[in-house]
Amino acid sequence: MDSNLIKGFKEAIVPGEHHLILSHVNPDGDAVGSSLGWSSFLRSKGVKTTMVLPNKFADFLAWIPGSEEIRFAESMTEDEVQDLFESIDRIHCLDFNALSRIKWGQEIASSGKPIYLIDHHQDPEDFATVAYSNTSSCATAEMVLDLILALEGEIKLSPEGATALYTGLLTDTGSFRFPSTRSKTFRYAADLIDLGADNGAIYQRIFDTNSLNRLKLLGYCLSNGMEVLEEKNAAIISLSVKTLRKYNYQQGDTEGIVNYPLSVENIKVSVIFKEDDGFLKVSLRSKGDLPVNQIASKYFNGGGHKNAAGGRFDGNLAQARETLLKALDEL
Known about the structure:
Strand order of the largest sheet: 3-2-1-4-5-6
Low-confidence stretches: none
Mean pLDDT: 94
CATH architecture of the largest domain: Alpha-Beta Complex
Shape: globular
Strand content: 15-25%
Structural class: alpha/beta
CATH superfamily of the largest domain: inorganic pyrophosphatase (n-terminal core)
Oligomer: single chain
């Protein structure tokens, strides 16, 4: 790691200061885990932290130690936001690289506070005072561990911090199976287990705890909601508001479903279109060298990693399907 980068983060750790930790809209396991893990480390150094996410995360992440302290921008008043920005000394942006991914983009840009970025997504915007960007890293949680190791010479964390960061590693690597998982990732996982992360319990809480409605929704997606385009080596899952209401959809219920079609032989691209409040949420996954982040950025106002990306579409399901077909022909 670059010595100037280490110096920049080391100078940010000032006991007694108040730091704001932010992550992206619709926070996943890495957003929540890396925020909690970095906060735990900063607090161990005498820094006061406040964690704010744009909106609530899925229930299967609510057990992570410290998650009850996280505030949500969507439920804060203008006065509360103003008071918070006046009280903080520095801002940490984790697991996002564009201010459009956060509710307070304008407030951050105009705050005058030093901004510290820790993120592994492609094409970061130039808004941070000190930016640690590594697109080859499997998770922002892994980058937090890189920083702690560089700053301390060893991984020092409470059991709670270790649990949070293990959750980030586990979820963003697809249980350590994605190509971005490296030998270093497993060494970090072992370190976190030694520090108190219960790997079996974490896996059970993340992947083996479902509501009946979520299981029924999964069944619908695979039996009725999925269209296989054999000639394009692709699969599309389309979810209308009517369908989501039928299965009492809750935040996070579709997490991971987009990966299922990729287990089918010859399917190389999988996409979920999900109706939301006047637009469609889009999730894209791929195998091998197919860069779905290019599809997300060009056609769906989004971005992400080569094999995992997301975005939005201002139209209906039929229009989104036609747009995807055009994008797949280009790809």
